[in-house]
Amino acid sequence: MKKPTILVVNDDGITAPGIKSLIEVMQEIGNVVVVAPDGPQSGMGHAITIGKPLRFDKVDLYPGVEMYKCSGTPVDCVKLAVNKVFKGKKPDLCVSGINHGLNNSINVIYSGTMSAAVEGAIEKIPSIGFSLDDFAQDADFSHCKKFIKTITLQVLTKGMPESTLLNVNFPKGANLKGIKICRQANAKWAEDFEERTDPYKRPYYWLTGVFENYDKGEDTDVWALDNGFVSVVPVQFDLTAHHAIPVLNSWDFNDMAVKKTSGADGQSLG
Amino acid sequence: MKKPTILVVNDDGITAPGIKSLIEVMQEIGNVVVVAPDGPQSGMGHAITIGKPLRFDKVDLYPGVEMYKCSGTPVDCVKLAVNKVFKGKKPDLCVSGINHGLNNSINVIYSGTMSAAVEGAIEKIPSIGFSLDDFAQDADFSHCKKFIKTITLQVLTKGMPESTLLNVNFPKGANLKGIKICRQANAKWAEDFEERTDPYKRPYYWLTGVFENYDKGEDTDVWALDNGFVSVVPVQFDLTAHHAIPVLNSWDFNDMAVKKTSGADGQSLG
């Protein structure tokens, strides 16, 4: 088999230990190209940079690895990689991470790590995001490596279902029980803002919060991680709530609604 | 009926004409509270501000409207509104926009306007995002108003299906044919980066792109807008690709996979 070409991205920035660990695993599998933010971009979600220009420069951090840093968001990095590095000849795989901190449950939507992988999938590149339950700069990623290699080789062998990517999260610590395929738990952040006063007597606010899980299912990523498993959630970027289409078609829009054409969701009401 | 309390947000910034139009419609329906970015935040997706603090100040722009500006993202605005303005006593509705520019199809994922509405829905507030196919600062929003009022009153009367919000897009111009309930079209941006050279001879890049629609369905938002309809797409924030769970459970993870627990997606393989 020809060695696959693998794009590696992240949101913690190109010098983060997490991306170094991911590069090391990917070097065992294929030819690695890294395009990563020049600094931390955590919590950037699916942001793109449209109001200002981007810087994009080749760097030389690790032997044998083609690397670029970018002033923009994780999603910008994927777009720059596709357009400026691969020039339309797509890589065989896009991996993002390893994130310093979990991206399970609702965190998938705030995460720059996962949004980079989502962008890879939008570009029809098989894509995986990896995250570890440890925010520390010196987090130990060593126990993740064999799982990352196995999951990555399965994706390269089997191919991803259409318009789908993987969200892989690791508990902290070495005693992992195995891999569990999950759904995203129904949970959210109960946010709080810590108010402080600057030296000029003006208030400012730090976003903080507590993660609240409303989901008792044993088929969720939260349950899997709480119980020592590696969670693997298939993720999609069609955000349509298909089940709600018939409901909306039953609403009363004062004769403004047009229902003559039939659709893919069975709402043929003509 | 008690007048509803309505949170109005956007991503074009608190002084944008689009939010002024939306405030005018909402004042006909309820008590309006505005929390909006202090400047443009287009393309910010679901970004939140975690690496730096936020500024958050009361402003007085329009008579009879309680208004706050925030230095952060559209999603930050919703979080600040819930925590600092409503103090946990949620508003009856969250509306976002009117965006200067479409947020149909895949744009839902890049859009600050839609991400603010998604955040409202995560907070269990009935939420709607509105966008017009006109990027101009002096865009004419007048033809959108009667549709916005009708849709908003239906949401307040009927309530939203659980964990669902609405993505409403308007064509430019006054001759609208009506409202059409749609799904998100399968489309993407074919990006390009325009390279320029700064006065110091260093390159920089502007993100540009062409919207490519791969979807011939007449039940999509792209089709509806192309044919003069107001598109209404129900949107969800559970990103799980449920259909892919059985596929992944059939993969070979070198005995690392644990399949003993049954799940909500019928992958009981124990």
Automatic annotation (TrEMBL), chains A, B:
Keywords: Cytoplasm, Hydrolase, Metal-binding, Nucleotide-binding
Keyword set includes 4Fe-4S: no
Enzyme Commission code(s) on record: 3.1.3.5
Annotated GO MF terms: 5'-nucleotidase activity; metal ion binding; nucleotide binding
InterPro entries per UniProt: SurE (IPR030048), SurE-like_Pase/nucleotidase (IPR002828), SurE-like_sf (IPR036523)
Cofactor note: Binds 1 divalent metal cation per subunit.
GO cellular component: cytoplasm
Residue intervals of the Survival protein SurE-like phosphatase/nucleotidase domain: 6-190
Subcellular location: Cytoplasm
Protein name, as recorded: 5'-nucleotidase SurE
Provenance organism: Pedobacter insulae
